[in-house]
Automatic annotation (TrEMBL):
Keywords from the named record: Coiled coil, Signal
Compositional bias (Low complexity): 209-230
InterPro entries, sorted: Dev_Immune_Receptor (IPR050328), Leu-rich_rpt (IPR001611), LRR_dom_sf (IPR032675)
Residue ranges of coiled coil: 336-370
The UniProt record lists the keyword Plastid: no
Protein name, UniProt field: Uncharacterized protein
Region (Disordered): 207-231
Organism: Chironomus riparius
Signal peptide: 1-21
Length: 375
């Protein structure tokens, strides 16, 4: 019975692995990137947790578009600080006009020609702060329009010498890697050629084992290990594994067919216990996912509050400045009114003095006239 339980557990695990799929939620907005301007971007909001090759398949994309925009307008795909161990597959079925791909701080472990060949219009690619170890041969063979490649702070130990040779439009090439090369070419085809020559002399270490049916992986580091030895994926091994799975499934059917019903009745409690254990494990995973989502929502809420506080502070500062200006205007107007009032009083006094002087002059004139008459 223990053997049956083990086989059942393995079969269930394989089924769950093979049936995995991923949905992503996009926030759409137009941005200017390094080369491409006015690009309409899908920025991933949720954390799809792509930790296996199977879960890398995108089956649905949600999120409201800007007015008048559709999936066909999307020219940029941006992911930052999410769990993306493997390059998302199936994006081209939703976004057929991708020109910019930016996957940064996502623990991306590998990228292959098969991943990028689906984006023939690609102009810019950013893969920085990931544990990439290898840039395989022919990686960019189907991306002739590439002008900007930014591969920074990964764990690159091997770059195929001819991986950039055919990119005639390439003007920006950033390869800053501690283990292999530290070189930059900015808006200069001649500088790009110098960097490519440095790649051929410094990064062609031939440290990986290749297979005739599968190109070397860009990295084999898992999220929880620190291995620095690149490995290849053997297609024959995959076929062998698939064959073993089929054999296990067949053996499981044979065991079930050969086991008397009484045996299942006698061991019913064991089966129930095993089923309960699987259910409990699934529920525990669900609780972890719920807590993760709750934490993410809480952080999003705090971020929104912070943004609102910043905006409120800015609005308050503007309002206070306007009030100050109004007060200055009010005080200035009051001062002008006081000056005008004082000026009016002074002018009135001057007028009165002039009138008095005129009266005095008139009296003096009369006196002088009377004196002349007397004489």
């Amino acid at each position: 019975m223990a053997k049956i339980a083990l086989l059942l557990f393995f079969t269930v695990g394989v089924y769950l692995e093979l049936s995995a799929s991923t949905s992503i939620e996009c926030s759409y907005k137009t941005h200017d990137w390094s080369i491409v301007k006015n690009a309409y971007f899908c920025t991933i909001n949720n954390n799809p947790s792509i930790t296996t090759r199977e879960s890398a398949t995108i089956t649905s994309i949600s999120g409201p578009h800007e007015s008048g925009k559709t999936n066909s307008d999307v020219g940029g795909f941006y992911v930052y600080s999410k769990t993306i161990n493997y390059f998302p597959r199936g994006l081209e079925t939703f976004f057929k006009n991708i020109k910019i791909i930016d996957i940064s701080h996502c623990n991306l472990m590998e990228v292959h020609q098969e991943d990028l060949k689906l984006f023939p219009k690609l102009v810019e690619i950013y893969l920085h702060y990931n544990p990439l170890e290898v840039l395989e041969e022919g990686l960019f063979d189907f991306n002739p329009d590439l002008e900007f490649i930014y591969i920074w702070n990964n764990k690159i130990v091997h770059i195929e010498p001819n991986v950039f040779d055919h990119l005639s439009k390439l003007r920006y090439l950033y390869l800053q890697e501690k283990n292999c090369i530290d070189a930059i070419a900015e808006n200069s085809i001649s500088e790009v050629k110098n960097v490519i020559q440095a790649v051929k002399s410094q990064c062609n270490k031939n440290t990986m084992t290749t297979s005739t049916t599968q190109p070397p992986t860009t990295s084999t580091q898992s999220p929880t290990t620190t291995s620095t030895t690149p490995k290849s994926i053997n297609f024959e091994s995959c076929l062998e594994l698939e064959s073993k799975i089929d054999n296990i499934a067949s053996s499981l059917k044979d065991l079930i067919g050969q086991t008397p019903n009484a045996a299942f009745s006698n061991n019913n409690n064991q089966c129930d216990a095993f089923t309960d254990a699987l259910r409990n494990q699934s529920e525990a995973i669900g609780r972890i996912d719920s807590r993760t989502e709750a934490f993410t929502e809480a952080m999003d809420t705090k971020l929104e509050i912070l943004k609102e506080n910043v905006e409120n502070t800015r609005t308050l500062s503007l309002r206070q400045m306007q009030n100050f200006r109004d007060e200055v205007k009010t005080d200035h107007a009051g001062l002008l009114a006081a000056i005008r009032l004082r000026t009016d009083k002074i002018e009135k006094q001057i007028k009165e003095i002039k009138e008095q002087n005129q009266k005095i002059e008139d009296k003096l004139a009369k006196i002088m006239k009377s004196l002349k008459i007397d004489n």
